[in-house]
Amino acid sequence: MKFRQSLIAFACLFAAAAAHAVPVTATLTADNHYGLYVGQADGSGLQFIGRNETGSGGNPGQYNWSLPETYSFNAGAGDYAYVVAWDDGDAQMWIGDFQWGANELVSDLASWEYFVPTGTATWNPAGTPPVTTAQLDSLIDAATWASPLAQGNNGIGPWNTIAGVDSDAKFIWHDTLGGTSSSDGKFVVFRSKAPFEAQAVPEPGSLALVGLGLLGAAAVRRRARRAA
């Protein structure tokens, strides 16, 4: 009986864990640089996912924004996407899409908010991560979020079409896509306005099958004991 109860408890824990794990595929790039993170709305539980090239050249591609990077990771329950982006001068943008299950999040004005940290104490563009999770958490704690103002269709100059990014995604920045930005010499933190939804999980029927399989294993084990 205890063994059967343990298996049932394990099946329940398996179902709960699966319901909170969201496999996400993200594809993005920026002019000139970005770091991708996921974490809670208050900055807790942050994970650094990746960044683009540290120099101005692409690898591959001519420029660091010419071709996007693609990442696969698991987002926890209530996790948001964070894109920390900065520019070396002139035009500026980032663009990307996030897909999980049948869901998609793209870069556009409606789906994101931002803040520009004051000062440059945490400025470390060559680092990996460019901002530590502890530093970013502290900045988020003090943040006042606003809606970004500038967007353009994937295909406009000077970037033209970024291959590999969903056609619904936009080039976005907090104030302007061209010329001088108020965040020149700083970085901008963009956050999705909603967390990832926990939908890319096993269906209830699949979880039930897992439970039945575990109980079946228990029955086999009991029969083996009786035969002995």
Structure characterization notes:
It is built from 3 helices and 11 strands, in the order αββββββββαβββα. Residues 2-18 and 199-228 have low confidence and may be disordered. It is α+β, with helices and mostly antiparallel strands and 228 residues long. It has helices at residues 2-19, 133-141, 204-227; strands spanning 22-31, 33-39, 47-51, 69-75, 80-86, 93-100, 103-106, 112-115, 150-153, 170-173, 187-192. The protein has 2 domains: 2-13 and 204-227; 23-192, no CATH class. The strands form 3 sheets. It has a 5-stranded antiparallel β-sheet, with no helix packed on it. A 4-stranded antiparallel β-sheet has the order 4-1-6-7, with no helix packed on it. It has a two-stranded antiparallel sheet with strand order 9-10. A hairpin with a 2-residue loop joins β6 and β7.
Features of this protein?
four-stranded antiparallel sheet, five-stranded antiparallel sheet, 228 residues, single chain, alpha+beta
Concise description?
By secondary structure, this protein is α+β, with helices and mostly antiparallel strands. The chain has three helices and eleven strands, in the order αββββββββαβββα.
Number of helices: 3
Q: H/E series, N to C?
A: HEEEEEEEEHEEEH
Count of DSSP E strands?
11
Spatial extent as radius of gyration: 22 Å
Q: Describe the global form.
A: globular
Main sheet, how many strands, which sense, barrel? Answer: 5 strands, antiparallel
| Strand percentage | 25-35%
What's the rounded overall pLDDT mean?
Answer: 82
**What count of structural domains?**
2
Distance separating the two termini: 18 Å
Helical/strand content category: alpha+beta
The low-confidence runs, each spanning 5 or more residues with pLDDT under 50, are 2-18, 199-228
Q: Helix proportion of residues, in percent?
A: 10-25%
Q: Strand order, biggest sheet?
A: 3-2-5-11-8
